[in-house]
Each structure stands twice: as structure tokens, then as C-alpha cells.
Amino acid sequence: MSGNIVAVPRPRYRRRHYFVQKRLQGAFVARFIFGVLAAAAAAGGAVYVSVGSAIEQEMYSAHFSVARTGELLRANLIGLNLAVAIILMLLAVLVMIRTLRRCTMAFTRLRAGLERVATGDLSIRFGPKAGDRLEDLFEELNHTIAHIHGKVHAAQLAMKDVIGMGQPERAAALRQVASELRLEP
Fold first, then answer.
1. Phi-psi category of 74—alpha, beta or left, where left has phi over 0 and alpha has psi -120 to 50?
2. pLDDT of residue 7
3. Residues of the chain with pLDDT under 70
4. Residue among 127, 130, 133, 160 at smallest CA distance from 145
5. Contact yes or no for 86/111 (Cβ under 8 A)
6. Cα(16)–Cα(25) distance, integer angstroms
7. What is the DSSP track for the chain?
8. CA–CA distance from 36 to each of 33, 66, 98, 100, 141 (Å)?
9. What pLDDT shows up at residue 185?
10. Alpha-carbon dihedral angle through residues 99, 102, 106, 107, given to the nearest 10 degrees
11. What digits encode the pLDDT tens for the residues 84-100?
């Protein structure tokens, strides 16, 4: 092994700048906490009503057959826990489907717009719809398309001047146009 150390350049952009947004995280955490509290309140209310009903029914029945309270409540609590688990799973699936649909619709709009850009239509502008979490991506794409549009327009203007030139001047002008077409800021 040699003692040479190769420096690895740091990436210009970090992932956290594009994918982690405090506003998005705060909204998710708030919704999650609200959902957990609502589900706990609903489950607690259901347990209270179910247990109260079972105890009341047993106390007012003609014969008192329960040796322990657990025997009286076990069947109700097991059934109630299964019902709550099934309801929570169904709600989780519905939320997942809704979230996937919203993401799919946004990416479908992006794909259609980028296909238009690929065919040469640089007049397109992406705008987020209500509820989209991709505002930064839309803004960056609009900036990139505008930058490309400016470069193409400058190259078209330069090409008009190239037509009437002689061979050596034309080669130098074409090299200048090629360097201007590089998409570096």
C-alpha cells in the first residue's frame, strides 16, 4: 500500500437541503400526534363503554356467575382490541393510498412537463398545486428551463451572425457558440 491519500471532493449539494423540510416534518408530527390522540380517545371510550356495559349486564343479571372480573371482561377486551387493530390498519392503508396518489399525480405532471421539454418546448413552467410538497423542485426546474432557454436563444442569435462569415471566422464563432451552450452558470 502506498501512503498517497486521495482527497474526495465534498458534494456541492447535500441531500438534506432537498428532502428534509422543517415545515413538512412539523406538519407530519402534528398530524401524527393528533391521529394518535384521536385513536387513543376513541379506543379508550370504546373500552369504557364496553366494560361498563359488561359489568352492568352481569350485575343486574338473574344469577351472578363470575368468579373474577377478568373472566367477565376478557372476551369483550379481546374483541375490542381486534376491532381497534383492524380499524387502525384500514385507516393506515387509506392514508397510504391517499399519500401515494398525491405523490403520483405530482410526479405524473412533472413527467409530462419534462417530456415536453425533451421535445424542445422550453416555454413550459411548472407550478405546484395546493398540497404539493414539491415547491422547491418545481422552482428549481423552472430556473433550469429558463437558463437553458436563455442559452438556446443566445446560440440562435450567434448562429445568425455565423452564416455570412468566412471559413476561419465561422470556426471560431462556432467554438464560441459551443462554449456558450455549456450549461454552467
1. alpha
2. 61
3. 1-24, 64-67, 130-133, 161-165, 180-185
4. 127
5. no
6. 12
7. -----PPPPPPSS-HHHHH--HHHHHHHHHHHHHHHHHHHHHHHHHHHHHHHHHHHHHHTSSS---SSHHHHHHHHHHHHHHHHHHHHHHHHHHHHHHHHHHHHHHHHHHHHHHHHHHTT-TT----PPTT-S-HHHHHHHHHHHHHHHHHHHHHHHHHHHHTTS-HHHHHHHHHHHHHHHS---
8. 5, 35, 18, 21, 37
9. 46
10. 50
11. 889 989 988 998 998 88
pLDDT given at position 41: 92
Calpha distance 131→67 (Å, rounded)? 57
Instruction: Give the type of residue at 124.
Output: I
What's the pLDDT score for residue 183? 47
Question: Could you tell me how many residues make up the chain?
Answer: 185
